[in-house]
Structures are given as C-alpha cells and as structure tokens.
Design a protein that fits this description.
Layout lengths: L2 E8 L6 E8 L6 E10 L2 H7 L9 E2 L4 E8 L11 E4 L8 H4 L9 H6 L11 E3 L2 E2 L13 E5 L3 E3 L15 H13 L6 E5 L3 H10 L6 E6 L2 H9 L4 E4 L5 H8 L5 E6 L4 H9 L1 E9 L13 H4 L4 E4 L7 H13 L9 E5 L3 H9 L5 E5 L1
Parallel strand pairs: 11-12, 11-14, 12-13, 14-15, 15-16, 17-18
Antiparallel strand pairs: 1-2, 1-4, 2-7, 3-5, 3-9, 3-18, 5-6, 6-10, 7-8
Length: about 375
C-alpha cells in the first residue's frame, strides 16, 4: 500500500528545499508510518543539502522528527498506532557496539544514517514519478508530512508532552547532553567548558548545570547567546571575540585548567585551544564536525599529562532509555529546551534555513 504525501525535497547540492508530492512505500516488517507533528532543523541537514556530504540527491532529509504512529510493520514490537514517538538515528542492532549499548557507533552507521539514502536492502522508501529519491535519512527522512521510519529510530514518549517541544531531542540535544553525562561525567567541584553556544552547546550547558560541576563556562562570539547560556546554568561566559580564550580560562580556573571541554564549533583552531586549556587528566569531547579529511595539530608533549581527546556521535546514547529521560526533564521544567526553539510552519522551511544560517534561530522546529 503506497502513500502520497508532501515532502521538502532537495533537488541537488546547494538547491533550496522545495515542497513536492512524493510516494511512500507501505511499512516493511521493521518499519512504521508516522504522521509528523514537528521536526527540528539541524546543521547536518544544511550540510547535506549544500552538497557537502555524498547523500544521493534529489532526496528528503530531516532527522529530528516527532509524530504519531499511524501503522506498523508485522515485526514491530512495543510500538502501536496512536503512540507518540520521537525519531532518532537508526542502527543494525546486531553488531558488537549495538549489542554493547553503543548504537551510535554501529558498524553500519554511516550508510544507514548519513550517506546511504537507502534501506539496508538497497531500496528507498520514497519515490517521485516512479523514480526513487534519496531517503531513509537517519532511518526517517522526517521533512515530510508522513514518513516511513525504521523501528530502531522510534522512541515512544509521554503523550502529554507537546511534540514540538521535544523534537530536537533526537539529535542535537541528546548530543550535547550526552557529551556531558555519558563522556565527561563531571565529578563534584569540577569545571566544564562548552565551546560554542548553539543548540548543541547550550544543551551541554543545561546538562552540566544538572551535575556536581561547580563551574560551567560557555564560550561564544555572540553576546545574546552568552546571556542565554548564563540563564540556562553557565556560571561564567567568555566572549571569544573580545578576550583571549586561554587567558580567560586560566583566570576562571585559577590556572589549573578545565576538567572537561565540549567542542561544538567544528573549528580546528578552537579545538586546539580547548585541548591546550585542559587540566591534567582532563578530557575534550569533539562534537563539531568540520569537512571530511580535516586535520588538527596538537602538542604531543602537552597530552602526556593524561589529557584525553574523545570523538562523539549523537551523545553515545542508547536512545530507548536516554530520550524518555530527557522528555521527563523537559516536562518537569528542568531541561528548558523551549528557550532554544523557534517554530515555523512546514511551508516556511526555507525561511527557517535562512534564519538558522544567519544566527537568528538557535533551533528551528518545523510544525505540520
């Protein structure tokens, strides 16, 4: 049974998002049809749309979806029509990392989520005029009024929480929160520095404020975002356009350095500054993703004091437990995600893209 729906299609690298009628397959055994209610817009979507990653275009992107299940495949368990779901990345469920509770490092993560544009069997669930489109983006391709979603991308959530308020949990928020909770795990009295106060960075600030860390430093060049970081739990802020970052962090930490740093900008110069600012046995979590092949120069002797540089994908989160916990924090007001969100009707997706690129919107959320 095929389904006709409206989707935002990117025709080629650098082209705008264009609303178009597309045809969805009926759900396979391990898939569900989800009526979208909201979908967050992420820099990864913009990077793929620009042609910066080898995703097959024309195609349908979107990977922070939230909606209501309309139909499920024969092998789907634990999810039923009418359930509210947040959509996140998919994974194979069978490799060593999936079995070990680290599906973000699935052995098939790249083709299943970011660059393949197809299901594992090589087919796309989306077509137009009889021609397949790039789809299955993060197992969902949620820039559409309906989506065929892989069951490992589905996370059932509390139906009392408005879906537009939690759509970004599927990628950006769980990445920032997971960097702090799953990797840094701040000890009592420690210092956490967040480089970049966008959606991921501010999520990391909110997460750090819920830990025993006593010093939380947000670094950016935009004064409004630094003010918001202070309201969300940062104890200190640094305007990197006005102060030398190394000197500022040395002053804040009394010369000892930071115990943990979350780097969200994707700027290798900023990453180098973050590594240099670490205390002995400190850790930098690399979240920001520059173009493939980018390298960074580090002082090797400077690492010998037990410093660690750790790369991170999607917060190293096990979504079935992590996302519902975040939903509860949003519901209780302890994770004030609404402070980051600006909503746009789905038809205004290009305005949302422009506002995000211009820095006017921290986390645009499309509503359907």
């Amino acid at each position: 049974m095929s389904i006709t729906t409206r989707a935002a299609v990117v025709e080629s690298g650098g082209a705008p998002f264009t609303l178009s009628d597309v045809v969805l397959d009926g759900p396979g055994p391990h898939e569900a049809v989800v009526r979208m209610v909201a979908a967050g817009l992420c820099h990864t979507d913009l990077g793929v749309a620009s042609g910066g990653l080898p995703f097959p275009l024309p195609g349908v992107l979107g990977h922070e979806g939230a909606g209501v299940v309309e139909a499920v495949g024969s092998a789907v368990t634990g999810i039923a029509p009418g359930d509210h779901v947040v959509l996140s990345f998919t994974s194979c469920g069978a490799c060593r990392n999936c079995d070990g509770g680290h599906p973000a490092y699935c052995s098939t993560w790249l083709p299943l989520n970011l660059i393949g544009g197809r299901r594992a069997d090589g087919t796309s669930p989306i077509s137009r005029a009889g021609e397949p489109l790039g789809g299955h983006f993060f197992g969902q391709s949620s820039f559409a009024e309906r989506a065929v979603v892989n069951d490992r991308s589905l996370v059932k959530v509390d139906a009392d929480v408005p879906l537009e308020s939690i759509a970004p949990l599927g990628c950006g928020v769980q990445t920032g929160v997971g960097a702090v909770w799953n990797v840094l795990k701040p000890a009592t009295g420690s210092t956490v520095v967040v480089l970049g106060a966008g959606a991921v960075g501010l999520s990391a600030v909110m997460a750090a404020a819920l830990t025993p860390a006593t010093t939380v430093v947000a670094v950016d060049r935009v004064g409004e975002r630094l003010s918001l970081a202070k309201e969300l739990g940062a104890t200190h802020t640094v305007d990197a356009g006005e102060r030398d970052l190394g000197e500022a962090l040395a002053e804040i930490t009394g010369g000892r350095g930071a115990d943990g740093v979350v780097e969200t900008t994707g700027n290798v110069g900023v990453l180098r500054q973050g590594v240099d600012a670490l205390a002995a046995r400190g850790t930098v979590v690399v979240v920001g993703a520059p173009p493939f092949g980018t390298e960074v120069a580090l002082d090797v002797n400077g690492l010998l004091g037990g410093k660690q540089v750790v790369g991170l994908t999607l917060g190293d989160a096990e979504t079935q437990s992590f996302i519902p916990a975040l939903v509860e924090l949003v519901k209780d007001g302890r994770l004030p995600l609404d402070r980051l969100i600006s909503t746009y009707p789905f038809a205004d997706i290009d305005q949302a893209v422009r506002d995000m690129r211009a820095g006017k919107a921290i986390k645009p959320v499309l509503t359907f």
